[in-house]
Amino acid sequence: MSISEPFIRRPVGTSLLAIGLFLLGIVAYKLLPVAPIPRVDFPMIQVSASLPGADPATVASSLAAPLEKRLGQIAGVSEMTSISTLGGASVTIQFNLDRKVDGAARDVAAAISAAASDLPINLPSPPTYRKVNPADAPIMILAMTSDTLKPTDVYEAADTIIAQRLSQVEGVSQAVISGADKSAVRVQVNPAALASTGMGLEDVRTYLSQVNVDLPKGSIDGERDSYTLESNDQLLDAGDYQSLILTTKSNVPIKLSSLGKVFEGVENERVGGWAGTNRAVLVIVFKQPDANVIETVDRIKAVLPELERWIPPSVKIRLISDRTTTIRASVEEVQFSLLLSIALVVMVIFLFLRRFWPTFIASITVPLALAGTFGFMYLFGYSLDNLSLMAITISVGFVVDDAIVVIENVFRFIEQGDRTMVAALKGARQIGFTVVSMSLSLVAVFIPLLFMGGLIGRLFHEF
What we know:
Keywords: Membrane, Transmembrane, Transmembrane helix. 50% of the residues lie in helices and 19% in strands. The protein is of the alpha+beta class.
């Protein structure tokens, strides 16, 4: 008994099975994520730390070097690079491809904790780390501009409304704000005036950090009553800082305003964004690893009109970068090539067979094979990308070849006088092993791709 005999003897069951496979394939096709290239988890982690006011040489010696020393002791590190800039350092660690990125992240966190004793004590915050994937580029960049509001006000709207709402959109992993910074009170001290008081810049910094706190004040307990003291010591604007008394000289109080300028500004004045020639606050959107990039962008565009009603009318939101433009074009081009190849195959079959039913039977094997392929792609976590669609396009010819060989052999028995059922059984039994052998030999050509190592091997794994 051949492999195909049970299906030939049960045409109704076979037809229902084919219809079910086709419907499952359609559902799986709708659920498959769309991406330009296959998703590959690169075991790479980036550690960032900041030391405001430090020059690159100081950052390299006091910040980057201790981190590199500890991070270099992690097992499986293949490459480590660091960049020291004004006020901050970034260390990128690349691990061997067989290393799990989650396990590497735990080791990096432990190394950062171990390096804490070697780092400067005046770090504003501990070093942070995040997993980096070179393939995870932003899917969308929005520019928020206003002709009347200050960049800090636009930043406030972007940070409190736009970024939070976009992060809730299905498929979005995070929305990063760039091009501006949070509002802050900046103090510019005159060194000569400060020196006359006998104080230094560090004294001013320490004093400002101590007065701008909101700590519990305690309580007053009596015999029958207890009172909790409430007072807010936080300073919220530049006017509150100007009246601060730093010290006294000859019994004369020295106010902060007499030693320099106190004004409203931003935390980092060296951050700026432009959309064309206009100042803008940029909202950079990233997608989740398994999200469909096209559907995610469509969802974001759908909520933008709603978000525009939540922000001041003078703030305009403009789309300046949409990664799906090229992705849609490339995927649509490959899909068109796939449909064109199917049409050409059907035309060639009809040209040589010159019979409708053999052509029809050979043609329906293509959508059924594609439906089954989409189902397995969904089960294995693959995506619709240029490489997977290219592989499907190539395999269309393999499927049709097998169908043509079997159909021709069956028709040969029909022409010899056998009934249709008998001819189908004879034809399939006679050539079934040959067809399977042909298919396996064609598949064997691509087996080396499964064992290809390195980044190229991971990219071609879906192919």
